[in-house]
Amino acid sequence: MSLRESPFPNCFVEGLHAVSWGLILPCFWFLDRLIAVCMSTSLERTQRQEQECYLHPLKVFFGFILFLTLFLITAPLAFLGFLLWAPLQAARRPFSYYQEPPSRPTPAEEGERNLGFEAGANKATFGFATANLCLLPDGIARFNNLGHTQRRATAIGRSIVQGVNRPHIRIFVDSPSSCGTLSPSSSLLPGPSTTSPASYGATDPACQPPPQGVAQRGQAGPDDVPWEVSSLFPANVDILCLEEVFDKRAAVKLTNTLGPLFNHILYDVGVYACQPPGSCSSFKFFNSGLFLASRYPVLEAQYHCFPNGRGEDALAAKGLLSAKVLVGQNQKEKKLVGYFNCTHLHAPEGEGEIRCEQLNMLTKWIQEFQVTNSKPDEVVVFDVLSGDFNFDNCSPDDSLEQRHSLFEEYRDPCRAGRLYRSGTLLEQPTLYHEDVRTPENLQRTLEREDLRKQYISSPVALDGCPMVYPELGQPWVGRRIDYILYRESSISKHCRTVLDLWTQLAGLTDHIPVGLRLNVFLDSDTAQSE
C-alpha cells in the first residue's frame, strides 16, 4: 500500500491547518526579515566594502523600524492562528510524502539502473548521499554566515539536477583485492596508488575490517578502494538524505526541483508544538530538518523524535527517519527491498552523553522498524544509516561517541583509510574565501593538507585540557561529522564501497556532502532461487 501524500487524515483538517498557517506566516516572515536586516554575512560585508557603500546603517535603521512595525501589527492575527494551529498538530503525521510518476526510461537508462538482481545476476550497485544544507529561516541562517535561504534552496536543487543530468562516462574499475569487479562507474576514479602526495582514500571494510574504535592515523594499506573528490554531484545516487531543511518554503522548492529525478520524497519531517510526555522534550518550533529523496518507491516510513534535546537544540524536533523502499523483484518474484535511515544528532559540544543516548535510541528504533515491517517474501539488499552525527573520529571531546556499539553493527568505511582526514565541517567565518568559494577551488583545497587545515574545522579538545594538534609526525585530520554507514546483510557474501566527497555546493552550505556507492554481491542461491 502506497503512502498517503498529505500528512493530515482528511481535507477538512488540512484546510484548517492551511488557514491557521496563513494567519501565522505574515508575522513569522516579518520577524525573520527583522532579524535578517540586522545580520550580514561576511560576503555581504566584503561586497559593501568593495562597492564603498555607506548607506547600510540607514538601511538597517529604517528596515528595523519597518519590519518591527509590521510584526507588531500582524502579531494578533498570528496569535489567533497559533491557537488554531497548535491543536491540529496532534492529528498530523510527522512527514509529507511527494511522489511523481516516473517517466519511461530509455533503453540506455534501463541498462544503468540496478536491474542486476531482477535479471538473475548476483550483483547491483546502489548510490547514497548525505548533506547538511543549513536551510533555516533566513534570519537564523545568518548566524551561521549563510543568508538568502530561498535562493540557496533553488541553487542547491539546480546544482544537484545539473550533476545528475551530466553526461555519463562509463568505465569499469578492477578491484585490487579479491572482492571481484566493480560495477560501472559514472566518473573517472583516481586509484589509491596515484603519484600525487595529496591522494587519500579508504580501506575496503569488506576485505579488511576497520577498527571500530577511534580511527587509527596510519597510512592506508594495499586494499584501498576507489575514492573520489568531485566538483559535481554524483550521477548515480539512488537515495539522498538532507539535514537542516527546516524552512518549509525551501523544502517545497527542493521537492519541486528534485521530484523529476527522485520520484519519491519525504519532507517536512518531524513534529510541532507540544507532544505527549516522553515523546519529545519541549515545545517544538521547528521540524527535524530531515529530507529524504528516493528513486525507489517508499513502502513504509516511520519517524521518532529524540526526547532528550537540550538548549537551543530542543527547539527543533531532531530524531530518526526510517524508510523501507522497493528496489524490484528477483526471478522467483520475491521483493527486493532496502532500509534507509537518516538522522541528525544533538549539536552542542561537550554533551556527548546526550548523543550517546540518542545513538542508543536510534539503534533500538531501527531494529523495531525492521522487525515490524519485514516480510517472509522479501530479500533485503541494503541497510544504510546516514546523517549529521555532530561528532567526529578525531576529537578527544568526542571519545565517548566514537566507541559506541553502533559502529559494531554498522560499518563506517571512512574510519580506516585516508578519506577520514579530510573532514566535512567548514569553518563558517571563511566560507566565502576564494579557496573554498567555488566547487573547483574547494576541490583543490580538499586535496592539500596545508589548505584543509585553514578551512576545515579542527578537532575539539576536552574541556579544560589543552591539546597540541597534530602530534609530531602525524597527519592533520579535520572534523568529519557527516556519515554514511552500512550494515552487511546476512545474504550478502561481499560488499564493495566507493567513497565520494563532492564540492558542487561550495558557498551554499557549511558542510561538505558525502557519497557512498555500495556494490552488493549476493549468494547465487539468494539472487536466483530466493
From TrEMBL:
Residues 183-222 are annotated as: Disordered. Gene3D superfamilies: Endonuclease/exonuclease/phosphatase (3.60.10.10). GO terms for biological process: sphingomyelin metabolic process. Pathway: Sphingolipid metabolism; Lipid metabolism; sphingolipid metabolism. It is an enzyme of class 3 (hydrolase). Keywords: Hydrolase, Lipid metabolism, Membrane, Sphingolipid metabolism, Transmembrane, Transmembrane helix. GO terms for cellular component: cytoplasm; extracellular region; membrane. InterPro entries: Endo/exonu/phosph_ase_sf, Endo/exonuclease/phosphatase, Sph/SMPD2-like, Sphingomyelinase/PLipase_C. One of its GO terms (molecular function) is sphingomyelin phosphodiesterase activity. Residues 183-197 have a biased composition (Low complexity). Signal peptide: none annotated. Residues 236-501 form the Endonuclease/exonuclease/phosphatase domain. Its EC number is 3.1.4.12. The chain crosses the membrane at residues 20-39, 60-86. It catalyses: a sphingomyelin + H2O = phosphocholine + an N-acylsphing-4-enine + H(+); N-(hexadecanoyl)-sphing-4-enine-1-phosphocholine + H2O = N-hexadecanoylsphing-4-enine + phosphocholine + H(+). SUPFAM superfamilies: DNase I-like (SSF56219). Belongs to the neutral sphingomyelinase family. This is sphingomyelin phosphodiesterase. It comes from Salmo trutta (Brown trout).
